[in-house]
Amino acid sequence: MNGFEKRASQIKHKIIQTTLQMLSSSGSSKIRIADLAKAANVSQVTIYNYFGSKEILIREAFIDYVDRAILEFEQYMDENHSLKEKIEHIILLEKSSYKELPPGLIKELLAADEELSRYIELQYKEKTIPLTVRILEEGKRSGEISEGVSIESVLAFIQLYMNQYETILQMAEQSEDMDKYLEGMVHMFFYGICGKP
């Protein structure tokens, strides 16, 4: 990469990061290119030259966010963590991501952009699910997952948590101690309400 390409990449990255910051605080409908340009310290023309439109910029910013999240997820899963730590990571991953991009905003973005929605679905099917299955299969082989529990049922249980995570997070925020509340949810995932500590 020559100096010009490196500078162009840095500018694009800055615009994308600024867009993500503004999305998390304002939502997509309130974002204006003029405000983005000012916050990123670039001209509006520069934004249009790199992205073409506000919609494409928002799509690319969200794709960048998802790609980084998947990469971090893959790296964590490849590290030397116990199965319990890995599953806990999967469940609690939503906690930090929802702070960065609220669930309502994600739904709004996916509903407004069919191409973005297809991309996210593809990443989920081709990367997230296979990696999760691999981790669960390793847990079955090592005896960390009970013989009486199938991989499909663990995946379904994780999906139940994910489908209700927005509600779980709202309840956690209303509790006296959010982290303790979420730790309790993870405990119930592994052990039920009467299981071992």
TrEMBL record:
The keyword DNA-binding applies. One of its GO terms (molecular function) is DNA binding. InterPro entries: Homeodomain-like_sf (IPR009057), HTH-type_Tx_Regulator (IPR050624), HTH_TetR (IPR001647), Tet_transcr_reg_TetR-rel_C_sf (IPR036271). It comes from the Bacteria. Residues 32-51 bind DNA. Residues 9-69 form the HTH tetR-type domain. Keywords: DNA-binding. It holds the Pfam family TetR_N. This is TetR/AcrR family transcriptional regulator.
